[in-house]
Amino acid sequence: MNQPDALLALVIRQARSLGIPLAAKIDPHVQINTRALRRFGRCLREGNYYRIELSARLLSGSEAACCTVLAHELLHTCYGCMNHGTRWKRYAARMQAAFGYPISCTTTDLALGTKAPAAKYIVRCTVCGKSIPRYRSSPLTRHPERYRCACGGTLSVTKEGSL
Hints:
single chain, alpha+beta, three-stranded mixed beta sheet, three-stranded antiparallel beta sheet, 5 helices, elongated
């Protein structure tokens, strides 16, 4: 089990040692999100105060995976870096060169070495067979007849466990 608060403090020290201008006010306690299924982390800005949130799935992953996501989110606290623009990418490259974190705009379970959650619903096209996993109930999973695949085919939904 990873210690996210200790890892956050470590990554903050690492970024500051490289001269990366992180925000002055960052909550030292990482919030754990037990509902996040596809997102690994999130940087929340409240005025000039920042809070970092991690998916509970990362807690059982490697320390390196946690540090990578924490570094990604911490870079969003830098001025002009709430998106994945040029400045954010420059800071990410600096962190990767110094500490080996494979920071990118998006990542996968495979890249982080975590296990992907099972989709609760699988939406399939009856014409081309395209499969679209869905993790929560939505208008698409409740009323697939209202939607069409890009190929023009109709959609059907299968619930997990009845595959």
